Amino acid sequence: MVRLKDLPAEDLFTSGHRLCAGCGAGIIARMTMKALRGPTIVVNATGCLEVASTIYPYTAWKVSWVHVAFENAASVAAGIEAAYKAMMRRNAWDKKVDIIAFGGDGGTFDIGLQALSGALERGHDFLYICYDNEAYMNTGIQRSGATPHGAATTTSPAGTKIPGKPEFKKDLIGICAAHGIEYAATASPAYWNDYITKVRKALEVDGPAVIHVFSPCPVGMRFDSAKSIEVARLAVQTRYWPVYEVEKGKYKLNIKVPKPKPVTEFLKVQGRFRHLFQPQFKHVIDEIQQYVDENWKRITELCGEA
Amino acid sequence: MSKVLGLTGDGAVAYAVKQCNVDVVAAYPITPQTLIVEEFSEYVHNGEVHTEFVCVESEHSAMSACIGASLTGARVFTATASQGLALMHEMLYIASTLRCPIVMGVVNRTLSAPINIHCDHSDMMGSRDCGWIQVFVENAQEAYDWVIQAFRIAEDPDVLLPVAVNLDGFILSHSLEGVRVLDDEEAEKFVSTRKPVLTIDPDKPITVGAICFTDFYFETKRQHVDAMDNSPKTISKVNDEFAELTGRRYGFIDTYEMEDAEAAIICLGSTAGTAMAVAKSMRAKGKKVGVIKPWVYRPFPTEQIIKAVENLKALAVLDRACSVGAPYGPLCSDVIAALYREGIKLNLFNVIYGLGGRDIRPTDIEAIFNEALEVAKTGVIKEPLKFVGVRE
C-alpha cells in the first residue's frame, strides 16, 4: 500500500479548475496524477471533469490531455496507443507512454460502453477510469445506467407515483471483467491509498485495466460540499460500494466491512434520497438495503470471503 | 520503373495505402468498402507494412481512434461508406477542426432507408460541410493517384486538414482495371513520413480539445475556413510534383472538349467517364458538347469552373444525391452559387440520377446532352430540376 510521503509533491492536476467545491472528480484526478510512473497522456470524455478543467485558453493539466467527444474516450485512447506502437516500429518513437482515459458514468455505463468494450476486447494497453457520480451531473443531473434505485434525478424525479429511478445500477466491473482483462477494480476517494495503489497497479498491467471509482457530487447528490469524503466513506461502510479488485479473473475484497452501517446512513445524508423517507416509500429503502445485501453477498462470494 | 497491376478500385486504394508509410489504420468493415480493409489486412498479416491496424467495433470508434492516433503525429488512414460515414458524422467535424490530417477512402453508397448497398453520393453529400477536403475520382487509377497525393496535401503544414477520397461503390470499388502503380521506393520518396507540427508528446504537454465558448469558438472555426481557403496552393503544388513523377496531371477539375462546347455536363465520379465517351461519339456527329469533372469538390473549384464555362451556352448539372426540399441537388447549388458570385448568368438545369445504384446509361446521357443543346439554342429551360432514370 502506498504511503503519503511516497507521493510526489507536485500536482499535475492543478488548482484553478472550475469544478464545484467538494467535487469528487477533481479529487480523483489529482490523486490519479500523483500515481503516475512516467510519460502520460490523459484522454477525457466529455463531462464535468472535461468542461471544468480546460476552459480555453486555460488548462488545469500539466500532462498532455485530449478531449474528443463524449462516447469515445476508450477509442481515442486506443488510437493513441496504436500510434505509438507503430511509430516505435519505424523508430520514430522510443519511450513507453501511459495512457489514462477518464469518463464519467454517462460516458462509460451508457453512451461510451460500446467503445470501452471494443477497446478492452482488442487489448489496448491503457487504463480507463470511470469516475461515477451516478447521474449526468454535467448536463443537470439526469439519470444514467449508473444511477441507483430510488435516487431522484431531473429525469427520474421524486414523483408522487414513481419515487425516483425504478431501475438498479449496472455491474460495470462485472461487464469489464467479463472481457478477460488483467485488472479491474472499484475504489473510493475516501480510501486514497487504496485508490492510488490501484492506479499504480493498473498502469503496470500490459493491456487494458479499468478502475471504477465512486465520485461524490455535492450538487447532484445534494449534500454539503464539506462532506464529500464522508459520503464516499459511508458508501463503503454501508457496503453500498464494495471495494474490490479482479486480478487475472480472481476477485479480492480490499476493504472489509465486518460491521456495516445500515444503508439509510448513506441515504439520509443525500437530498437525492430524501423523498424515500416518507412513509409511503419505505419499501424503496427496503429494496435498496436488500440490493446492497445481495450485491455484497455476491461480491464477497466471488472474493471467497463469504 | 512503374508497372501496371490489375486492381479493383478498393484494391487500388489499399495498394496506395500500403506504399504510404501509414502508421495507423483504424477501420470497420462496410460494403462496398470491405475490399480495402480485407486487402490491407493481408499486407499487415504478411508483414509488408509496419502499420498498426485497429479493427474497431464501429465507424464512430474508427474515426475516434484515427483522431487520437493523428494527434500523436502519426500518419493515419481509414475507409468507410454510407451508414459508416453517417455514423462517423460527429467525429468528422472534430477531426477537421482539431486539424488532424487523416486520409479516408469513402466508397460512395447510398443511405438507408430502404437499405441498399449500391452507389450514389448521398453519404458524402450528407457530410459535405464537415470541413474536410473532398475529392471524387472517375476510375481506379485516379483512386490510387489521389490517395497518394492526399497524404501530402493533408499533412502539409499550410493545410493540416483531413482528406476524403471518394470512389463510386461497386462501379469502381469492385471493378478490375489496369492501374499503373509507382515502385515502392518512388512512392516512399514522394510521400516520405509525416512531419507533424504540434503533437501530444507527453514530454511537451499540451491540451487539445478544450471547451471554447462564445469568446473563442468562432475564431477557431474561422481558422478552419482559412486553412481550407489556403489549401489550393498546396493541392496544386502536390499535383505538379505528382505530374512530374508520373506524367499523370491532376488539378481541381478535369475537362473534356470544353474549348468550343455549346452545351456541357458537369458531374462527379465515374459518370464523368460515361459522359466523356458519349460526348466523344456526339462530337463525331458534329454536336458541340463537353464535360466538366470536378476532382476536388471541397474546396469548391469556383475559379476553374468559371473558366471552363466561359464560352458555354447551357450546362446540365448531374447530381447523384438529392437534397430533399431544396431547390437543387448539392452540386448544382454549389455551381449556381459559384456562378452567381462571379455575376455569370448561365442557362442550366439540374438532373438527379442514379440513386441507390440505378444505372445511368449512355442513352440517358445523350438525351441530357441533347436537352442541354436545346437549351443552348432556345434559351428556354423547361425543367430546372429533373429526375432521370426513375419510374414516375
By helix and strand content of chain A, what is the structural category?
Answer: alpha/beta
**What is the count of helical runs of chain B?**
12
Distance between the termini of chain A: 24 Å
Text of the CATH class of the largest domain in chain B: Alpha Beta
**DSSP summary, beta strand count of chain A:** 8
Count of helix runs of chain A: 11
CATH architecture of chain A: 3-Layer(aba) Sandwich
Rg of chain A, rounded, reads: 19 Å
Helix content of chain B: 40-55%
**What are the segments of chain B in which pLDDT stays under 50 over at least 5 consecutive residues?**
none
Structure description:
The complex is a heterodimer of chains A (about 300) and B (about 400). Chain A has an 8-stranded mixed β-sheet with strand order 2-1-3-4-6-5-7-8, with helices on both faces. Chain A has one domain: Thiamin diphosphate (ThDP)-binding fold, Pyr/PP domains (Rossmann fold). With about 300 residues, chain A is of the alpha/beta class. Chain A has helices at about 25-35, 50-55, 75-90, 105-110, 115-120, 170-175, 190-205, 220, 230-235, 265, 280-300, and strands at about 40-45, 65, 100-105, 125-130, 185, 210-215, 245, 250-255. In chain A, about 35% of the residues lie in helices and about 15% in strands. Chain B is an alpha/beta fold. Chain B folds into 2 domains: about 5-245, Thiamin diphosphate (ThDP)-binding fold, Pyr/PP domains (Rossmann fold), CATH 3.40.50; about 255-390, Rossmann fold. Chain B is about 40% helix and about 20% strand. Chain B contains 12 helices and 16 strands. Chain B has helices spanning about 10-20, 35-45, 60-70, 80-95, 120-125, 140-155, 185-190, 215-245, 270-285, 300-310, 330-340, 360-380, and strands at about 5, 25, 50-55, 75-80, 105-110, 135, 165-170, 175-180, 205-210, 255, 265, 290-295, 295-300, 315-320, 345-355, 385-390. In chain B, helix 3 (about 60-70) packs parallel to helix 4 (about 80-95) and helix 9 (about 270-285) packs across helix 12. The mean pLDDT of chain B is about 100. The chains are: A alpha/beta (about 300), B alpha/beta (about 400). Chains A and B meet through strand 1, strand 2, helix 3 and helix 5 of A and strand 3, helix 3, helix 4 and strand 9 of B.
